[in-house]
Amino acid sequence: MHIRSYRSGDLPALYDICLRTGDSGEDATGQFADPKLIGEIFAAPYAAHDPGLISVATDDDGVAGYVIGCLDTLAFEDWCEREWWPPLRKRYPEPADDDTSRDARMIRMIHAPVPTHPRPYLEVPATHPSHLHIDLLPRAQGHGVGRRLIERLLDQLTALGSPGVHLGVSARNHRAIGFYERLGFTRLVEPPTDRPPAGYTLGM
Ligand code: ACO
After folding, report:
1. Does residue 70 have its Cβ closer than 6 Å to ligand 1?
2. Which of 84, 125, 180, 194 could form a cystine bridge with 45, CB 3.0-4.6 A?
3. ipTM of the predicted structure?
4. CA–CA separation, 117 vs 148, rounded Å?
């Protein structure tokens, strides 16, 4: 696998990989009526906002994975509110209350975005202002590519002066949790004890 900086022509691959890893790391193809929806939230805005913090892993078959970084999470959320969400809110009207489809759940996130740092834990972006996403297709997994991509991003964020990075990971994604712990990420927020956690906020 070759690792290089993102180019605008990689955008369709970002949407595709986001979908194909969109079920807690497993393939979510077929779970969405609109296959671009998940990428509209978790991949494409980053490519529009700060493409310099995206790296991709490629092989002879094309782009097989990416890491996406965001230097300043709160500034990014403000930018999304101004620039990214308004046209999407027009394109995807709010679903009916009884619509439990995955599309409807994603569209609700367009209308009421879920921050990467669980509110009211605003100390997370205070101490770890950057955040990241990483997704590799199965053919790229398990060969050290994830580590290389994360280390490349951490070097970039450090050079830009970031004191810390956080991420949100589904509690069902045991593989990714093990990966992040192996790389040295730790839990920044203890999840509530009165119900099973939906996910964890990790950081470094
Ligand atoms: N438990 C313990 N250690 C692990 C685990 C695990 N489950 N997975 C990997 N490791 C270790 C490896 O042994 C390796 O150790 P070493 O470098 O010290 O020898 C190290 O972690 C790095 O492993 P890589 O081979 O680089 O991991 P990989 O390339 O498979 O990337 C990733 C991991 C990103 C989770 C990848 O499997 C993937 O993309 N999965 C599907 C999508 C996904 O789940 N993305 C995360 C969503 S959460 C978010 O983006 C914020």
Report:
1. no
2. 84
3. 0.99
4. 25
Q: Which residue has the higher pLDDT, 65 or 194?
A: 65
pTM score: 0.96
Mean pLDDT of the chain: 94
- One DSSP character per residue, 121-165 reads -THHHHH--EEEEEEE-GGGTTSSHHHHHHHHHHHHHHHTT---E
Tokens 């993102």 label which residue?
6
46 CA → ligand 1 middle, Å: 22
Distance 146 CA to ligand 1 centre (A): 6
Binding site membership of 20 for ligand 1 (Cβ less than 6 Å): no
The per-residue pLDDT for range 103-124, each reduced to its tens digit, is: 999 999 999 988 776 665 668 8
Ligand 1 atom 15: residue of nearest CA? 182
pLDDT at 128 over 90: yes
Partnered with residue 5 across adjacent β-strands are 55
